[in-house]
Specification:
GO molecular function, one term: DNA binding
Radius of gyration: 18 Å
Strand content: 15-25%
Helix content: 25-40%
Domain Transposase IS200-like: 1-147
Order of helices and strands: EHEEEEHEHHHHH
CATH class of the largest domain: Alpha Beta
Shape: globular
Pfam family, one: Y1_Tnp
Protein name: Transposase IS200-like domain-containing protein
CATH superfamily of the largest domain: Transposase IS200-like
Number of strands: 6
Distance between the termini: 23 Å
Number of helices: 7
InterPro entries: Transposase_17, Transposase_17_sf
């Protein structure tokens, strides 16, 4: 198995780095566009300000573009208001640092331009943990996709879920995560490489049931254990 890396980065001083839907969409666009060995042609997409949070800030130019030469496979992701998680496998040596430099610098440039600010956006380069042990590998994809519960049922970090069905429904409909795509919903399917994890988790339905089982074990009458970062 190729090296899998769990990447985490937060806003400087824990500041919010995604203010609205446009910001989330821009970062997801950047995950796709910067995942390329070739330099990004800045004329391919143009940033357009909009007061409507439902309108993407990305406007595609009508020019030809060569197919991407991927730096990494993005296995999973989750964007939260002040941080993000990525699960990556490199396609070549030093691919992860190259991808992360392009991603962080590109998004910070967009964010600072949009908000008329300067200075660092993120608290540091990023934090990376190699996923080596099988137990860690089993845990990380679930943990990444469970993060949005901080916005819905924050007691999950103490091993307490009041309503597992509502929690699962929230996760399935949280747009800024790869979990909906793993459940078979077309959210941002072109961003992630899901075949490896879906095979490991024995398909979308089995993965959904495993997630529901985990949540149910943490209901007041369940017998689950605490699951923390």
């Amino acid at each position: 198995m190729d090296t899998i890396q769990h990447i985490v980065n937060r806003g400087v001083d824990k500041r919010v780095i995604f203010n609205d839907n446009q910001d989330y969409l821009r970062f997801i666009h950047d995950m796709f566009e910067f995942n390329d060995e070739e330099p990004i042609n800045s004329t391919w997409y143009k940033f357009k300000k909009s007061n409507n949070p439902e309108i993407s800030v990305i406007r595609r130019r009508n020019i030809e573009k060569a197919p991407r030469k991927l730096l990494v496979d993005i296995l999973a992701f989750c964007l939260m208001p002040n941080h993000y998680h990525l699960l990556l496998t490199p396609r070549k040596e030093n691919a992860v640092p190259k991808f992360m430099k392009k991603l962080n610098m590109g998004y910070a440039r967009y964010f600072n331009t949009k908000n008329t600010r300067s200075g660092a956006l993120f608290e540091g380069r990023y934090r990376s943990v190699d996923v080596i042990e099988q137990a860690h590998f089993l845990y990380v994809p679930f943990y990444i996709h469970l993060n949005p519960l901080d916005l819905h049922a924050p007691s999950w970090r103490n091993g307490l879920i009041q309503n597992s069905s509502e929690a699962l429904n929230f996760l399935e409909n949280y747009r800024w995560s790869s979990f909906p795509d793993y459940m078979g919903k077309k959210n941002f399917p072109s961003v992630t490489s899901r075949d490896f994890l879906l095979e490991f988790f024995e398909g979308a339905e089995k993965h959904k049931q495993d997630m529901l089982d985990w949540l149910q074990e943490r209901e007041p009458d369940g017998k689950g254990s605490v699951f923390l970062e």
